[in-house]
Amino acid sequence: MTVTAPRPATPPEIGGLGHSVRRKEDDRFIQGAGRYLDDIVLPGMLHMAIVRSPVAHARIRSIDTSAAEAIDGVVAVITGDALAAHGLAWMPTLSGDTQAVLATDKVRYQGQEVAAVIATDPYVARDAATLVFVDYEELPAITNPQQSLAEGAVLIRDEKEGQTDNVAYEWETGDREGTDRAFASADLVVSLETHYPRSHPAPLETCGALADIDPATGQATIYLTSQAPHAHRTLFALVAGLPEEKIRIIAPDIGGGFGNKVPIYPGYVVATAASLLLGKPVKWVESRSENLISTGFARDYHMRGELALSSDGKILAMRASILSDQGAFYADAQPSKFRAGLFHICTGSYDIPYAHVTAKGAYTNKAPGGVAYRCSFRVTEASYLIERLVDNAAWKLGMDPAEFRRQNFIRKDQFPYRSATGFVYDSGDYHAAMDEALRLSDYYGWRSRQAEGPTEDGKLIGIGLASFTEVVGAGHSKEYDIAGLKMFDSAELRIHPTGKAILKLGVKSQGQGHETTFAQIVAEELGIPFDQIKVVEGDTDNTPYGLGTYASRSTPVGGAATAMASRKIRDKARKIAAHLLEAAEEDLEWEPGRFTVRGTDQSVTIQDIAFAAYTNPPDGEEAGLEAVHYYDPPNMTYPFGTYVVVVEVDPADGTWKVLNMTAVDDCGVRINPMIVAGQITGGLTEGFAKANMQWITFDEQGNCIGSNFLDYLVPTAYETPKFTLGATVTPSPHHPLGAKGVGESATVGSPAAYVNAVLDALRRGGHEVDNIDMPVLPHRVWGAANGVEAKP
Amino acid sequence: MRVDVTINGEPRSAEVEPRTLLVDFIRTHLGLTGTHVGCDTTSCGACTVILDGKPVKSCTVLAVQAHGSELRTVEGLRQNGRLHPIQAAFKEHHGLQCGFCTPGMMLVGAALLEKNPAPSEEEIRWELSGNLCRCTGYMNIVEAIKAAGAGSAGDAVGEDLGAAESVAAAEEMEAHA
What we know:
CATH superfamily of the largest domain in chain B: [2Fe-2S]-binding domain
Structural class of chain A: alpha+beta
CATH topology of the largest domain in chain B: DNA polymerase, domain 1
Largest sheet of chain B: 5 strands, mixed
Radius of gyration of chain B: 19 Å
Oligomer: heterodimer
Distance between the termini of chain B: 70 Å
Structural class of chain B: alpha+beta
Strand order of the largest sheet of chain A: 3-7-1-14-11-12-13
Largest sheet of chain A: 7 strands, mixed
CATH topology of the largest domain in chain A: Aldehyde Oxidoreductase, domain 4
Number of strands of chain B: 5
Number of domains of chain A: 3
Helix content of chain B: 25-40%
Strand content of chain B: 5-15%
């Protein structure tokens, strides 16, 4: 990319847009002064431990709590029956299903919550939890959707009225007839069946709650590891019947979220019920094993995709069908209108005239979830399917995968582009991003190297591409909601008399650097130095209502709200400036931080104006300088990019190594390029993890394999490759700053590039292979290279 | 049982049950919550502290085993009102996001640099392999440790990708608005 304007509009000490200012929040984190949930201690606080089912599917005959209750220090043992008396044994999920808080009738997955022990000490609570005896009558466990939908399968959700099978939902979209016609006229059809395996976001801090309900006033202060504190407050009000004005949710510092901290978990509800019952604060912090076996999983999509192609390499239509493994409760955190999230963005970066998508969800005896793990509502699965299909199509047509993409990309002049399934892509220049990625990665150099044959020690070189398009920044409120709450977001900005500011937001950082980035937006708009702007999030009593941080929506929605609130303040500041300068408003010129009377050297700073707002406001003008803005975006934003992975595959043992990973991202305007790059390297690592090692499986009895960090492998610094980053900038035309959101692009886009690279190595090494499911484990690669079907 | 330690240069003691883990002793009994718990299998390293000069995972040491020892936690990195070079370098190089793994990462880095002030990339990555980070992708953590070893926080975050284009694009949008 040519550099067209090397100078940001604000100087570094103001730190507006384009400055990689260092993060304000770091000062506390590097000194051990972060305040995470488990760091909070309240006087008289009790501790809760949860009794979980050791089996995947069983009827509960009886629960004996007497031995636990006899332990010194145990205050109470709560069972589902006790909750049922208050109407709290079941709760709604974010997809309109119901979920057991504490099981009363059956357990439906290993790790399900059955009872809770409250004690004066956390060690005692855990001791006592082992002494709660539950008599289970075991039932057959269903561990995949194929079993679940088979004739005669045991009914998992037998408590649900009218539920006669294990189908959680069915959904379809697109043009079935048009797609069928296009397939009928195709020269070639390429198909792919693949499983995007179950994964878990596994933020380093697990989930927890500290509920403090004052028995005298009824005031409920609930500290939660929550990515969406306002939405959680409303759901608590609706579910528990607590008056909303008396609920205060505080999400303190969050040790990573990645979608795991969007749902409401049974532990939160039980801790709150316990505090209500006992009149004391109750803390619950889950262990890592509890986190991995019971809280929101991600993916677990069995996908079949087909492309209809012309012989000259044009994609004519796409068909996709999904069988999703929902676990025991349908709990995807997603807009209620779309039953398979935004999977129907599966035509990706390509101009495909016809598409048809069907999806069916099945209940299984596995933990519920379906959370968007560093992902915007199933866009990860969609992107993976199309990017794998495109590579397979190029191979079948004998075309270079970059050329095939180039030929089928939506062109720059087609934006705004309406996709076959109804998305309106806001902006893009896919050719430019791919060209930059090919250049940076020396793609054609690697192709030449590859053409020379294997390395001296017999390893095969493979090159994989992925040119993803994401859909983020939900919503606009007509289409997007969570449990009926519309997906706008908010900012409240107040300028103090001395010209410093406080910005309060409805979103909630879990490490994304909001305290810095959002201050930079105000700095850009008002010229107040970014380090003089305090950013407050997470406390529902002290921030405006918003839907929270996930699906890369903070910058697209909360960031836009911040810019708009700043502009409202600038409008009022102009009036005050006119009053101070005794000039007409239209004669004033704005530069960041200052109004000047046109053609003169008479000016006032934003600080002068702020002081006047409280000491010398114009006649007829309200005192003060503050604004609130609720931003309802006109559309989603569509970040994109091309990733190139070069691998070396050893056909003798199936191991593979990354030689080069180059990522070119276009997320529109970058507010803090350093933070953006950090989001990308983090996301790339999670993409690498899923391609390589990170998955959760179950044995035939429904035991979770992957219930701790010894079995659920997440990459360390040692395995993780070094990444080369590049950028193009195509602004979003409808966002006030042109920004698009970036937190998830790399996790969404990169897995396919690794898999494509390994397949490319095998194919060009003479092995015909269409698919290896993730994670691309050595025995699977070896199996593919040697024509042996690998066991999972 | 009574456990006496010197932690961050200060003598402290508390009565604990024999089974009390060192991490709980530090967090609950001594009130130093900068040391975190991220797993239950000694895998993640969020609980790393320096015990008699060596980094250990304090979730897998009993408090009583640390009796009479010298401990250093993240709270003890800053000395005489000045940040430790590793702290300054983590901020300068954007070596942290959510901050949960950061105390452990910095302590492992600091301990490595005491042995070897100029470790290679490979050595740093190997040394860090007992500590998990879910946010950063490790690149900037490695850079921060290198910079701290070189005696400066440095000021390089790599090039500001897309900064100039972003500013140009935003100015253009403003002009059209």
